[in-house]
TrEMBL record:
InterPro entries per UniProt: Methyltranfer_dom, SAM-binding_MTase, SAM-dependent_MTases_sf, WH-like_DNA-bd_sf, WH_DNA-bd_sf, WHD_Rv2258c
Gene Ontology molecular functions: methyltransferase activity
Residues in S-adenosylmethionine-dependent methyltransferase Rv2258c-like winged HTH domain copies: 32-103
Tagged with keyword Protein biosynthesis: no
Gene source species: Pseudonocardia hispaniensis
Keyword presence, Transferase: yes
Any Pfam family matching the protein: WHD_Rv2258c
Entry keyword set: Methyltransferase, Transferase
UniProt-recorded name of the protein: Methyltransferase domain-containing protein
Domain Methyltransferase: 179-293
A single BP term in Gene Ontology: methylation
């Protein structure tokens, strides 16, 4: 059938078909660029490029890698507009503005995010099964790699912003921490937030809770390596968070929306806080209604992460399955239901993916 006939009989806009097909190819292309960024991050190639330009041979030698692989990966990164290439000397370079976003220890390094996509993609078959049969893929199925990947997602932000950017948004809390109070972090993962605060505020005592024993082991190893005496960690389901003696502050960094029983956990946090206590909840920046997320360029990624991880780990245990995109409106409603009526929402410095809910008790 010729194209003109197709158009005449179906009323399909041929040019629109072409544009849309290009969009789909471009989405698939971006997916592969993400994989190449993951490889370049894992192998140290991005850090090598950030340290200075070179030919593929020079870069491979500096990174201790095989030149042929380096050259092919660089082909993807050059054509994707990430790495610059000068054909005359066959030299590759990562301009400093891009190096800031793809290397180094700080909160602006986005390279570790590439690994999250690769990890979650490895579970497509299991999630597809849940589409057909219900249930979900449990947290344990994602470990031990999840523990490392999650640490990679949060460590740079915590190093760069926890003490100087995030805590100042919590009102009087830094002053109270300096004086000496008791603090918990629920769903603490590898415990970096607790260790950073324990080092900064030696008069306060800190405890981190997580259900994952491998994450708690990593947290304790850092406490020991840093010689901290005021940080402790416990493997615990935080629906059983101790309520006595009360805490002055409880933190939750991206650890509420994937809970099996998020309402139960919020109520337990409320019960565990003493008078004047504060709950600091960093969670995903989104709206609760789909229509309000249209136009948010990060929203497709958030719904994807939700389907492949945050929602499914909760549904796997018959949980609420709030998902990554539970959104600010539902979060505020659930906080209010748990007894947190006075909540201020802040943007998180250097982090377009999250907001900070600061809930003070009277
Ligand atoms: C998305 S990760 C965030 C980890 C850490 N807060 C960070 O920002 O790197 C959520 C964490 O919550 C933990 N978690 C989930 N449900 C839990 C529960 N009921 N009790 C304790 N920890 C839980 C998971 O094991 C995981 O480490």
């Amino acid at each position: 059938m010729d194209t003109a006939a197709t158009t005449a009989t179906t009323g399909i806009d041929e040019q629109e078909v072409g544009r849309f097909a290009q969009k789909i190819f471009s989405i698939y292309t971006d997916g592969f660029v993400g994989l190449m960024l993951d490889l370049a991050h894992r192998t140290g190639l991005l850090e090598t490029l950030a340290a200075g330009p070179g030919t593929s041979q020079e870069l491979a030698e500096r990174a201790g890698l095989v030149e042929r692989y380096v050259r092919e990966c660089l082909g993807a990164l050059v054509t994707a507009g990430i790495v610059d290439y000068a054909p005359a000397g066959r030299r590759y370079m990562l301009p400093p503005e891009r190096a800031v976003c793809l290397s180094g220890p700080g909160s602006l390094n986005l390279a570790p995010f590439a690994r999250a996509g690769t990890l979650l993609a490895g579970h497509l078959d299991a999630v597809a099964r849940a589409f057909r049969e219900g249930g979900g893929v449990p947290y344990d199925a994602f470990r031990p790699e999840f523990t490392t990947v999650m640490d990679g997602l949060s460590r740079g932000l915590l190093d760069g912003q926890l003490i100087d950017g995030i805590l100042p948004l919590t009102g009087e809390l830094p002053t109270r921490l300096a004086e000496g109070v008791r603090v918990a972090d629920i769903g603490c993962g590898t415990g970096h937030a607790i260790n950073l605060m324990a080092r900064e505020f030696p008069r306060s005592t800190f405890v981190g809770y997580d259900i994952a024993s491998d994450a708690i082991e990593a947290a304790r190893a850092e406490t020991t390596a840093w010689g901290l005496r005021n940080a402790a960690f416990e493997v615990l389901d935080v629906t059983r968070l101790p309520v006595e003696p009360p805490f002055a502050a409880v933190f939750a960094f991206d650890a509420i929306h994937d809970q099996v029983d998020p309402a139960g956990v919020l109520a337990r946090v409320r019960a565990a806080l003493g008078p004047g206590g504060v709950f600091v909840m960093m969670d995903v920046k989104a709206a609760s209604a789909l229509e309000d997320n249209v136009g948010n360029p990060l929203a497709p990624m958030l719904y994807g992460v939700s389907t492949l991880h945050c929602m499914t780990v909760s549904l796997a245990q018959g949980g609420a399955g709030l998902g990554t995109v539970w959104g600010e409106q539902l979060a505020l409603r659930m906080l209010a239901d748990a007894g947190f009526g006075d909540v201020v929402v802040h943007d998180v410095p250097d982090d377009p993916l999250d907001v900070l809910y600061v809930a003070h008790l009277g």
